[in-house]
User: Fold these one by one.
Assistant:
Number 1:
Amino acid sequence: MRRVRSGSFLVAAALFARTAAAAPASPPTVNTAPAAPDKKKEKPKLVALVLPDTRRVVGYEKVKPYASPEYEAEPPLEPSEARVVEVVDKEEALVLVRPWSSPMIGSVVPGARLPVRGVVHSKHTGGCATRLWYAIDPWGYLCSRSVRPTAEPATKEGLLVVPDGERLPFRYVMEVVKEGDKVPLWGSLDDAREGREPERYLERGDTVAIQKTLKVNDGQDYLSVEGKVMPVKGSMPLGGASEWHGEALDDKTVFPFGWITPDQAKVYDEPSTKKKPQETIARRTRVAILEEAGEGGKRMLRIADGKWVRAGDVNEVRRIPRPEGITAAKQWIDVDLGEQVLVAYEGAEPVYATLTSSGRAIPTPRGNYPIWGKVASISMKSQPYEDKAYFVNKVPWVLFFQAHNAIHGAYWHDRFGVTKSHGCVNVSPLDARHLFEWIAPSLPAGWSGWRPVDLLAQPTVHIRNSHQKKELIQERPIGPPDKELEAQKMEEAEERRAFDRKNDLPIAPAAPAEGMKP
């Protein structure tokens, strides 16, 4: 997602990407004593940006309450001869909040045709050498350098079109080569035909969204939806993704309820597992929770008369009151890491519930996080400070809630209901699409991403863990990735690699690109 002149949506949104948040491992022990490490300079104290009612963030000595940004008033619009403009940039064009150098409000794809509200002739060239800005519907401004007037009608379809009977907007393949083997991914057909250096190398587990097969040189190759080329050999089609989806809730829904977690859950005729089970229930069967007995690992749930199951075999869905400390937006989302469930609310009323897969080795952070970005699809890939490269292409329906962490569709697994991710909140593609379309505002046709002007007006993702004594603490700042923290991670990576070089230890190559990890 890049634009040569003004940077990509990722960069403009302060690294619109997901990192592997694990702390770097301690240097391994070697037989010979290493030279004394250079004295490290003291790292700057990071400031956590938080919602106004938050007083403390784990690991941050200072907090800074978020305040709504103030912008100069919008200038009066002049009439426009063009009713529709078409994006002519080779890559995504950035839509700005005001018709001058200002923050972005979103990005639009090449070829998108956008309705025009009017024009502004700016006094200065800042942000637009032509000084002519188009005010586009429903919000924001585009420099005339990025568009051309057109007599064609405005784009009507959203960016992700799902074929009838399908659950995904793209077909995907996954690399299944041996660990350590690498597969070339060329940036274009010409690069592949000319035998130029690949854009990157794919490894086991990497995925690519493809549009067709073709023969470039000696063997069969895939052409990706982004026009990149990779060999067919070593890859495996992923199929149509999980069929799982949650359910709509209304005032007739009885709480609590749940879904069976394991493939087969044993059912007992009393709140004890000492006797032989009377039957089993299949994974993801919806059950009522009528009564509870026992504590801890011995806790049991009655799901019908004379039928008890272990509480650990059920993803429990419980209604909670609207939390304190979230934004005033009517919509909000409750994610319970202990139960691996998500419930969407309109005011005090739950309207949708489903299963999630949150972080395993890298925990999903607890806290209150207003949604800071909405992206139709994004490639999640490694960043320069990570030692292992990865590439997960075209992840669909992404709601960023904290730095690199997002609620998004996961097409590469079907383990919803248990931890699985690297920190994000994975949901099935069907659930991701539902939540993406439910969260206001809708992404306008032709737009690939949207970033709110004011976080205090956005729905909050309320992340807690009902299995912990203290369900909710603020573990991370709100908003996009913090530049100082990103720089600190890069510095730590360079120090780690320098230590390895100095002591003749194996050095993992730096990850080749910015991105996020699902």
Number 2:
Amino acid sequence: MAGRSVRTSFAVAAIALSALLPAGAAAHVERSSYWPDPAPDCSVTPCAGGAVPKARSLSSALNRKAPGDTRVVCRPESLTLARQSIARARRQGYDVRPTDHRTLSARQARLLLRINRRLYQRCRYHEIQPAVTNSHNNDRVVVMPGLYTEPTARAQPTHDKRCDPYKTHSDSGDPGALSHSYQLHCPNDANLVAVIGRGEGPGKDPDPAPEDRHGIPNLGPCIRCNLQLEGSGVSADDVVLEAGDPKAGNGGPSAAGHEKDVGLFVDQADGFVLRKLTVRHAAEHDIYILESDGYRFDQFKTFYAGGYGVLTFVEDHGLIENCEAAGNGDSGIYPGAGAKTNAGRDVNVYPEPRYSQEIRDCDSHHNTGGYSGTNGNATHVVDNDFYDNALGFTTDVFTAPGHPGFPQQGDLVEGNRFYDNNFNPYVAGSDVKPYIPAPVGTGLWIAGGNDNVVRANRFYDNHRRGVMLFAAPDATVCGPIVGSDTPVPGCEPTKVSTSYNNSFTQNVMGVAPGGEVRPNGTDFWWDNFPGNTGNCWWGNTAAPGRQVTTSPMMLPDCAGGTDPSRSIGTGDAANEGELVGCLAGFTFGDYPNGNSTICSWTTTPAKPGAAAAADGSAIARQRRAQLQALCDELPQNRTCAPLGGPASATGRAAPQPPVSFEGAWAGATAAPGCRRGCSPAWRASPAAAPTGARATAPS
């Protein structure tokens, strides 16, 4: 009965919490959204979508015979700034991201300066938005070094009454959602720069939206498909799109002096490419791409948005690479509701399993969350660094009102580094204003997700936990009867659909790349939700002479990952009790700060080994004491079986057999695209994955 009471309380608290999630904090209401048709649109030549687009070299912008026209945007000082940046890069190199420092050869410097001189001669625009507005399919917008505040777009009214006829209903029924037509006719109402890729459709948008979100209804013709927007400097630092206060530089606070909700908005723009641009201080999102098939974001930076540094929503065939995201109130990188092209896919739409988006070679740091992917399906996350956040990585379902793709499924997270995620944005005076609650000191959590693979990553120096996994029953998120006012497509309140078939293997716990021992508070934490199946932990390693630490003390290894049917959740009163306390704290406390007397998540955990370490706090000790008392009364209960013998703080499983990735449950049988972080030598050795200086042409 005690376990049932905990689970009932968990559901009730989660239902109350979901009603308070920060959807109401958004300045504009989002429309119902759809996954684009994955097939290329060949009404334009070359076809748009159907694959990740190729980036065109900067030098090709000078080729007048190439497809499309090039429009050049500059400031009076652009050429001087280009010279200074090139000279500086020759002397000391430049950072694509903090962990990727590159050099510039003399030949590359001469070529880049020559290109910028010719571009400056062709400059006809001094703001980015007019150049975008005048562009068509296959065109280019090249932005020369400088600070762009977009005074004309800033001056456009926000919530303009003249735009009201283009509003539609959101999934919750709110009549104030911004339709595609709204963005087409009023592009700078919410956005500093807007790239609207398609015209109006021939019919009328469905209202209310259908549950099936495959294919955008009433799709208009391509008008700016295959558009490339790029800076002409050495790096993203040279071209800045400023949505707020320029005096804040790349610093905070979040959304400092914001003038628009979104810095750069991209809507239904198949084949869009963004390169070498920095966006800062938007009220909600610095970069936001919606309902687009085929995009590539390369060598870009975002700083101090109120919500997300970069938000991709209902996307397919997407790639984010070589980026930096810092200071954002929610998360640095947010691939939400990605096309469900892997586990759980509709085979009539996606016959073969694949990943719909890839995120690689990025640094996301000093955010509330480094990465957030609500219903972020089929995303390949590889070779990134998540550090100095409150929570390094989350994929979840419980913040999902209106998000297609429930339940979340099919991510592959491999070869990344999650470390020092101990930043606390909830303390007074923080330069980051938290947008969401998060367990400070945690590397990664899966908060209600299925069929995810977390392998060959490094987790170290996360003072609370390395990895967390817990279920979110459908009733906590579905709506509108329970949960929130927004129905979630595919969600049924009577079911428990989340936290099945997740695998954690070959991760290195508590060891920095150079071999230094830097333990996590607890390496792996699981709520052990009753009835969840197929969750397996095997082949993970700790520092020499140390053991992987877990809660519960024993986690199922599924015979080295070969038999997921051996894993069945039986309940854990202590861990479920923690979830109840925290959900209640956020529900009835000061959202998103919570109530520190019943939940320690928003307090700074002590460094592992200290007297009051993360899982050694008074709250945690009380939960363990309660569990032990329960087990003394119910010694035959399966939940209490691990406590039948001598207690162990480390609880490492027996040595594991060789790793096997066979079986669809694991989400992938190989590691396509996994490069330096996932080589067999890297997995077997604590030596650093090869990073550092690279001599690369800034093409």
Number 3:
Amino acid sequence: MTALFSGEPVHRALSRLSIAHPAATLASWILVGAACAYLALDLGVDTSTGSILNRAAPEWSRYEASVREFGSDEVLVVGIDAALVDHASVLEIDEHLGKIAGVSRVESLASLSVPAEVGGDLRFAPPTFGHSLEEAIALALSSDLAKNSVVSKDGSLVAWIVFPESNYQSYDRLVASVLRAAPSGAWVSGVPVYRSESNKVTRSELRRLMPVSLAALLVVGWLVLGRLRLAVVALLPGVLATLVVAALMVMAGTSVTFMTMVLPPILLALGVAYAIHPIVASAGEGASFGHLIQKADGVALSGLTTVIGLLSAALVPIPAVRELGGFGAAGVMVATFCAISLVPSLAWAFDARRPLRRIGAVGPSLLVIPQWCGVHPRSVVVLWLLLFGVGLVGLRVGTVDTDATRWFGSNTRINIDYQAISRGLSGISPINVVVERVDGRSMVGRADRDQLAAFVRYLRDRSEVGYAVSIAELLAELRIAFSSGPGEAGVEQLLLVAEGEPQLRYLLTPDYARANVPMRVRDNSSAALLALADDAEGWWADLSDYDATATGIMFEFARAEDAIAWGQSASLLVASVVVGLVLLWALGPGVLCAVALLTNLCPVVLVAGLMGLGRIPLDAATVVLGALAIGIGVDDTLHLSLAYVRNRRGSSRSSAVQAAYLEVAPAITSSTVVVAVGFSVLATSEFLLVSQLGLLTLVAAIVCWLADLTLLAAGLNLGRAQDA
């Protein structure tokens, strides 16, 4: 087995210098922290969910082009039981909604124009024009433009469809105004509602998570270490890392986003976990200056592997995720340097050789587990291989999907409204299909209208599609309404009648070259939206004369979320390979490296497999789970492996294993407790994106700890019969 290091590497030299000059080390880090804290005062916050959109992709350019041509497709749906409103209130609510700043137009029984013959002339008029509410509902049910949009198919619900202005971004203000204007007892839902609610929850969690994490980690550090000042020292790497990351974000012109909001709790938890190792090494009568410096090896390599895992997020083609990985990696590097310089210098200066009684009692108590595993190594390895197989089975049945409606509790107002509107009306998730002829000719010819009508029928037959319409339906209704005129009125004449109506602009470009087929979908999951978009494009792909492109804001969200989820798989694979190479370099080729690699792969695969078996999809919530699981697992494995290497010289394999666990088990158990508490804070979030990451990382930390106590011990003892 090759030695880990030769000579005096940089991290050991830094640790030695820092311990020798604690005052200078402390002063240097204070200056760094103060400078970064000053810069961090200018840090902005952008909690919009739009930060995860990939605006560099060609699909986004196509979406922007569709917005310019047909208008915004984001809608707010206000629905209510028809028995709770009358003719006058429908008109009044429509007027109030139309006056809200940022609203482009409103469609309702009072404002959605449908073709009708009025006074012998063909014109567009809302169903309520000259009619009672009951007559207006009956008229709307006869129109494909209104049915299941402003009125449910059975006529029991009426709705107002609020269209924001193109590129309008003040979702909080818009949603608040719509809620105020909505009648009592109404349901309000739509993409802007979820974006606004996500913004509010994100800002709330930003204010809550940092202080709660600090308090929880301080308390658990105090309980584990037994001395308050050591608990404060253990917090320093995470605090300084958070300040440096905030300063770097200011210098890069980046705000705290929907994704990077989880970085402070993560850095705090990892920083304390790294700090515990040098703190424990400085305690007890057997502590020595040299032994403390040796601990820098494990901390440095642990930080390196976590950095690698986070940097692998660069494989995800979403700028917000890359920022999360890049700034997270920078924060881990700072926490690592702090844990090998400031922490050991303060620990040695404050509490050199003073025993930590609570931690000291952990080693002998836990030793029974690796001892038993050393006696039955094959059984333990077989058990873990079986668990590894379970993980692989779970991976095969796992799904890649994100649904914003699952980010909030099922009993929350936002989801109750969503379910009511999805069941009774059309759903809220918009997707557009823009169709044009390959030869560039008009899309209003007879054959073109027939194809559009057939396509709309195909969409309406799908259970997830609540509403779909095209220019073909508008022209068909115009022909029916044109009863007093020629039976075969020309299309150009019909379009002139509709000129200036909002529906026409929403369905057809002024040159008639491109037709838009807007639909609203009841299923908000990214997998369902992408499948529907793919099927819609596939329907037109069979017709060689046409070119069709699916687009829309929910299509863009679904595409981004899908890229995030699939990117996790690729980044996890790359991170595993690179971490394997790091272990090979650090531990050398042989049984130890193979066992260490298996000890880290098994928990990651098992946790990922349990997600699949538990129907927990890969989504935006789990984007850094793999990187964190690898970083946490490798941390403990490296400290145990390096202790084994040191104790193996001149000792039997079983003696070296026992000595390594006696030395390191207290620290890795304490760090696991700290990490578990740190991520438990995230798990308490009311926002699923945050709580799911916290809960799964908590599970991963515990599984990694069990693997280090059992699988690593068993693997190291497999060849004990060969000992002299």
Number 4:
Amino acid sequence: MKRFLATSALAGAALMMATAFGAESGGAPRLAWHFVGAASLEGDTNAVLLRRALTAPATVQVLERVRERLADAPQRLAAERIKDPNADLAGWLREGMTELVRRESYGDYRLGAGSAPAFAVGIRVGASAAADWERGWAEVARALGAGSPEPVETTGAKVRLARWPEGSLSTAYAALDDWVGMAIGAEPLQHLAALREHATAQRRDAGSEWFECRGDLAALLRDESLPAFRLTVVGEGQRLRTQARFDFPADLNLDLTPWKLPMNTIRDPLVGFLAVRGFGRHLARCPLWQQLAPGPAPNQYCAWSLGLISMLSYFAFPMPDAANVLREVTPRLQKLADASMPYLAPGHFEYQAETNRTVLRDVIMTVPFLEARPEAEPGFLVGGVSLPLIATGEPPPPALLEQLTGTPDLVAYHWELTQPRLDHWWNVNLFYSMVRTYPPPSPESAVNRWLRDPELTKCLGNAVTEIRLTGPRTLALNRRSSVGLTGFELVQLARWIDGEDFPCWTERQPVLRRLRDAR
């Protein structure tokens, strides 16, 4: 738990700093975290499964890869900003991150005057280590072209300030008691003072959380419809408890109509199940839906996966007159595929009237499909990653469906056995890479070995996630899991770590486009 959370916080902060430049101005934090530190968790007996997963050799190797790639990120991604090519930035960042993982820390990213990005971090390193942190901070600042540090008159703390010759950017260092703080931006001294006030208030109101993160997605992603959020993680017995609250700027207007599920089609042995409702009004306004569908948008969606073989994953949503809708939507699917995936040929969508089914033909590995089943499941469109549609056998256990009907404000429910779902999602990722002609992940890569390591997969267990509507503008998420992430999220994490531009997200390019552009 300890290394995973701290490394995730570091990687998330690095990604955020790389992608949030250019957002609109404002002085409030865009993203902030607090981590209690690995040292304080060493005697904790909670989250046993995650602790075992973190000791797996492949996990240790991936965490070391994350640390190395974060340490060399300045040389890889911003070499033109480094004024001293002989400076050992990677060495100092590597050691600094090791200590950051162990110690209690606070940090936040915000925008200061003139929309300049600013970042500050405070670390409880102990008074004896403060001088080493000051030397490291000064070396990094000098390597990036800042002037010599100057003392700043203040009461009780040791403060240093270094400025860049051009523009208004500067960086500050402060030491007080057993804490050190570092900031970079237009007004780093004010930023450190604000961080100290925030940390003092948070320690006063601290709960049992191991990790807390707050953010303003509207400001980070420049979309005013997105919410502010608070996320916490804490060990709870053998598992983790993840909780989050999302506060939207306007009423969500979710229509929580009674659940309608294709109970004649969902069958055991289930390894994953998802049900979502309330989004019909929002889906109807989605440009993609308007391109595809001739009728009203469904208000519910469910998906399930079987544990027989990989790729047996299905979905369904209510759709009146499903057979006619399917007939009309097939040519629209082909048109959309031609526009968005021109390298899909010779794959094509084919409507089969005798079975009320549309399939994606001539694509290796799998046969994606949509199907109307008027006799077995009237009023639903059913689809899947691959045929056959297995709709025989025992129905799912009643306790699973009781999770839906027993919670009136439930918006989404997700349950999975994470190990088989991880395998499913990895194969879906391979299929998606194939149809998009993306370079496939190397079977010898560290992340591929990590996701296949039995020492990791045997620790994954169940993951249950609920999202509830707790107010007109508020959603609350609650998850109990072994490692904090679902199979889908683990695959996306692996993709991110393995990307060429990490800690930025790497946008993959089709191989055929690369070959065309190279000519």
